[in-house]
Amino acid sequence: MNSLKTVFLLTLLTMILVGVGGAVAGSTGMLVMLVFSIIMNFVSYWHSDTMVLKAYKAQEVDINTAPELVKIVSGLARKAGLPMPKVYVINEPIPNAFATGRNPEHAAVAVTSGIMQLLSRDEMEGVLAHELSHIKHRDILISTIVATLAGLIATIGNIAQWGAIFGMGRNSDDEGNGGIVGLLVTIIVAPLAATLIQFGVSRSREYMADEEGGRMSGNPLALASALAKIDDYAKRRVMPEASQATAHMFIINPLSASKESLASLFSTHPSTESRIQKLKELAATLKKS
């Protein structure tokens, strides 16, 4: 059901992109945006993992350089029936973690040095199980594609806005011209809809990863405890290297401290409180079974 929802939202997002292209440049614009979306998805598919790891200056580690971390990942990967992902450490005191890679065979898990110092072994297992769940369900690829398409729609909306200000764009007699209504849809409605779709995909995948991570580690309460600790740091400090383009990948939004209360309603992550509550409910369910 969750997979069908994701496919539907991705399709809807592509349709919005094509529609925006049509509003800006007619049938030619629709065709251009369709082709461009395919190219963007292809680039995201093959290069999203290497780009984000380089952006955060992540260093690959092994059993010799980070034995405890690699052992935890290896044990969880075996338990989940996954190939062993590459393991990276980011030299950053603020605790956080993410997974990346186009599929389980080309995946990586990255953690900050801060999270390794902050969490207990059980809590680290919960966090890493959460990230391996993302790998198992290819959430990283899906989130990257969604973010790419949403960003492209927002960019086109900005171009249309500036084009309207300076009198550029389609003439009133152009094919399928929507006039001022079409312009407003392109500038305001389409980017907003794309953003909401991005949030819908991201939040549902986070809840899924929490649940499976709790089941995989066998200790949902340890994951809940880890989320609370990471969130406490995130509310007070922003990761210097973090960006809006990659914030959705982390287990807790690394930009939380920069948000106003109203903006926090429009987050790629569900509230940590609701995630913790669901993990507590899962723990109670597992205890009964």
UniProtKB/TrEMBL annotation:
Matching InterPro entries: HtpX_protease, Pept_M48_protease_HtpX, Peptidase_M48
GO molecular function: metalloendopeptidase activity; zinc ion binding
Regions crossing the membrane: 7-24, 30-47, 140-160, 180-201
Domain Peptidase M48 residue range list: 66-282
Gene Ontology biological process terms in this record: proteolysis
Compartments (UniProt record): Cell membrane
Coiled coil: none
Highest rank taxon of the organism: Bacteria
Pfam annotation, one family: Peptidase_M48
Cofactor section: Zn(2+)
Membrane topology term: Multi-pass membrane protein
EC number(s) given by UniProt: 3.4.24.-
Single GO cellular component term: plasma membrane
Keywords: Cell membrane, Hydrolase, Membrane, Metal-binding, Metalloprotease, Protease, Transmembrane, Transmembrane helix, Zinc
Manner of cofactor binding, per the entry note: Binds 1 zinc ion per subunit.
Family indicated by similarity: Belongs to the peptidase M48B family.
Protein name: Protease HtpX homolog
Organism listed in the record: Candidatus Avacidaminococcus intestinavium
Gene responsible for this protein: htpX
